[in-house]
């Protein structure tokens, strides 16, 4: 069997991604192509496990973003003030 260059490249990519042999990757590709159905492996559901941040009572984590914004504004104003003096 002779494969065209683009088909060979796609097959080699599939082999690399799935870590399957040439024969397995080719048979899987033919099965999917000839059946007309695309099979997507069911991936394990991603679950986020919350855990405490260890902040002291009264500290608002959203306040960190406001503090970072304030520092950014101060740095911007200071940079513009130096540029005007030059």
What is shown here, in short?
This protein is mainly α.
Describe the structure.
The protein is an all-alpha fold and 86 residues long. The protein is built from three helices and no strands. It has helices spanning 5-18, 22-35, 62-85.
For the biggest sheet, the summary is:
none
Q: Hey, roughly how much beta strand do the residues contain?
A: under 5%
Return the average pLDDT rounded to an integer. Answer: 87
The succession of helices and strands, N to C, reads HHH
Residue stretches low in confidence (pLDDT < 50, at least 5 long) are: none
Apparent shape: elongated
- The tally of helices reads 3
Number of strands: 0
Radius of gyration: 28 Å
Distance between the termini: 73 Å
Please identify the structural class as seen in this structure. Answer: mainly alpha
Query: Which percent range fits the helix content?
Result: 55-70%
């Amino acid at each position: 069997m002779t494969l065209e260059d683009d088909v060979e490249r796609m097959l080699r990519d599939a082999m690399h991604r799935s870590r399957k042999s040439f024969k397995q990757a080719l048979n899987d590709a033919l099965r999917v192509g000839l059946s007309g159905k695309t099979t997507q492996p069911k991936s394990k559901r991603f679950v986020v496990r919350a855990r405490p941040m260890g902040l002291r009572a009264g500290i608002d984590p959203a306040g960190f973003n406001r503090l970072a914004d304030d520092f950014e504004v101060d740095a911007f104003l200071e940079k513009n003030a130096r540029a005007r003096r030059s």
